[in-house]
Amino acid sequence: MVKNPRTLPADGPAPAPSSPVRAAPAAPGLTGAGLAVVLTGYGLSNMDVFIVNVALSAIGADLHSGPAALELVVSGYGLTYALGLVLGGRLGDAFGRRRLYAWGLAALTVTSGLCGLAPTIGFLVAARMLQGAAAAVLVPQVLATIQAATEGRARARAIGLYGATAGLSAVAGQVLGGLLVSLDIPGLGWRAIFAINVPIVSAALPAVRRVPATAADHRPGFDPLGTLLLGAGMICLLVVVVEGREPGRPLWLWSLLAVAAGAAVALVRVERSLADRGGSPLLAPAVLSLPGLRRGLAALVPFSVGFGSFLFCYALLAQGRFGLGGLASGLVLSPFAVAFFAAALLTPRIAAALGRRIVSLGAVVQGTGLLLMALVLGAGWPHPPLLPVLAVLALIGVGQALVGPTLFRMILADVPSEQAGMGSGVLVTSQQLATALGATVGGTLYLSLAGPLSQRSAAVLVLALLACFSATVLAISRRLPDPR
Predict the structure, then answer these.
(1) pLDDT of amino acid 364
(2) Model pTM score
(3) Banded pLDDT at 244 (limits 50, 70, 90)
(4) What pLDDT score does 76 carry?
(5) Contact present, 238 and 83 (Cβ < 8 Å)
(6) Disulfide: which of 132, 152, 359, 429 matches 80 by Cβ 3.0-4.6 Å?
(7) Cβ distance 151 to 212 under 8 Å?
(8) Distance CA 446, CA 456 (A)
């Protein structure tokens, strides 16, 4: 059964912004075909975060650009993506999630084509920022549609597949990017990593009609001051996260943290005041105060920080210390992705048997895998044996899969269907920010320790720190609700 999502007309003008919408027949549930469509867009958006990493040297040589500009090719996408997620989710609540998903998918097609045709590095940076904005419109509609159009075991299965898609697309981006650049398919070179999106998304667009059309029962109003404060705070935080990876950080960079904190305090006051007056805050305090959402986010943040640190430090070791190219390093990481995908599919059954203890189990498995990796690297340096490395990567993938999708379910479990877009926007924004922060913290710590100590000691110490993040998730898991 579906929790009474509003069915939207395929065409026609939208109702007045503040007027209630007359109840319509319940939208059909999310079928397998509809789920495949929304996961395709999500997978491509997530893959675009990683696929460009292995092509940066080729882009720099072709467009005659330096490291700073190439960093913007990566961070520009992440900036507009993270910045627009909450607003994108809120727009889906207001104007219909299927409609916003279709718009985002179409925009992803256009912006991917622009990236592939970029004649200069400045054009490419601008196109990447537009591509991130398109992803910000598209991605929140995926979890929001799952939340609004499924229940019970169907929802658990759909969120499990969402989590599996996240892990698989992250590794697939690096592997596919390396493969496309090395094959140089019909002479496109690095441009093929963007061109590949166009036929896939173009094929998915006509199938969007398979996705149920859901939205809020009452169209929420616009919150300009809340949107401005959220945007200002996130821009400051994202600049610190991105620029914090570079050595010799200026003092003014850290002052942005104070600006972000001030914007956050002002945002809380503005949103509470607007809610008390019966308005439509961008971030509804009543939803953010739900115990499942608050406790789930408290576990998701250290989990995502650890995940971001692990992937970034893996890239530094694989491509820097051990000399693996983008394709080879991605292939070595494939046991992690395969184990993540397989375990995520089994997560609903395990959660049904263990309840919230599945998060505890996943944290223990993940932490054990990180400590074993530290042991393998420490004992086998400078040439660690490949088979134990692959086996431990698979173990870490299993631990990640037990925790991640389960936390998604817990966070969204009590979020009302009419605010599913806002809830999913908050979830994905928190995940993206924490993952980016983890890459900064992990990478900075590794590079800082590798100087006075050794690369071996630095790698072992960072992996031990990441195991502490798993221990934090384990401690928080004792207060989590049972997944539903």
Answers:
(1) 97
(2) 0.84
(3) low
(4) 84
(5) yes
(6) 132
(7) no
(8) 10
